[in-house]
Design brief:
64% of the residues lie in helices and 3% in strands. By secondary structure, it is mostly helical. It has a two-stranded antiparallel sheet. Helix 6 runs antiparallel to helix 8. It starts with 10 loop residues before the first strand and ends with a helix.
Length: 268
């Protein structure tokens, strides 16, 4: 028994030779809505970073996400192939992006941007972290529409699906939807409550720490239901690459929250 996979065309619309896919629209929605959300948070605080700072950072965020995401996929998920076919690494339209690589790219962009502007990277990063789940939500929905990154075989859940790309054509967990719910909706609500708290905002880095820990826990959990990448399979102690890359996020997140708490205590 399995639910039918919804027949959604990965192509949203086409105008002549121009083909626009839902995956591209998901990135666009993530950037635009995340940018607007940061503007709203900045205007509510009335302090720097200002709305104008986030206007200027949008281009940095796009470049950091795309370059970091692609480089992360090449290094973490398919290095032997791209070592033999280096030019293929430039063909981003064929797919292959890594969240952890994109996150590293954005962190580098935040560090450089704040250094040039004389801003606190921790304060700035807290607002960026609060909006990040928006892009994660739409990205995972796009993965589901594409029928990619599907889950492990499932015979004990009523919502299992047979994905068109699955060579085994067996019912599987719709793990993309699990990720959209946990990494996207739930994490967004958690951070939305935190970032609106004056007590939390007085602790720079705390919201960022919550994001790191929240995402790390969500990703590690969902990976137990997600099929590992075929070129990698299971790695150390049966863990997947996604789980191994998420473990350092728990440590970084814990350090950020502890730092924010100490900073508030020193200024009290």
């Amino acid at each position: 028994m399995a639910m039918p996979f919804p027949a959604i065309d990965p192509v949203a619309f086409a105008i002549g030779p121009l083909v626009v896919r839902w995956y591209a629209l998901a990135y666009l929605a993530g950037f635009v809505l995340g940018w607007r959300y940061c503007l709203r948070l900045a205007r509510q605080s009335g302090q720097r970073p200002s709305a104008e700072d986030f206007d200027d950072f949008l281009t940095w965020a796009v470049i950091g996400t795309i370059l970091g995401g692609r480089l992360g996929y090449v290094l973490f998920y398919n290095l032997p192939y791209y070592a033999e076919n280096p030019l293929d690494a430039l063909q981003v339209w064929h797919g292959g992006m890594s969240f952890h690589g994109g996150m590293a790219g954005v962190l580098l962009a935040i560090t450089l941007f704040c250094w040039r502007r004389g801003l606190s990277a921790f304060v700035f990063g807290d607002l960026i972290a609060a909006c990040a789940p928006i892009g994660l939500f739409f990205g995972r929905i796009a993965n589901f529409i594409n029928g990619e990154l599907y889950g492990r075989p499932a015979t004990d859940v009523a919502w299992a699906m047979v994905f068109p790309r699955d060579p085994l054509q067996t019912p599987r967990h719709p793990s993309q939807l699990y990720e959209a719910a946990l990494e996207g909706a739930v994490l967004f609500l958690l951070l939305a409550v935190a970032v609106r708290s004056p007590a939390v905002r007085r602790r720079p880095g705390l919201v960022s720490g919550l994001f790191f820990v929240g995402y790390g826990l969500a990703r590690i959990t969902v990976e137990f239901f997600r099929e590992p990448d075929p070129q990698l399979g299971f790695l150390f102690a049966g863990a997947t690459m996604g789980q191994l890359l998420s473990l350092p996020m728990l440590l970084i997140g814990g350090w950020l929250m502890l730092r924010g708490q100490r900073a508030a205590a020193q200024t009290a």
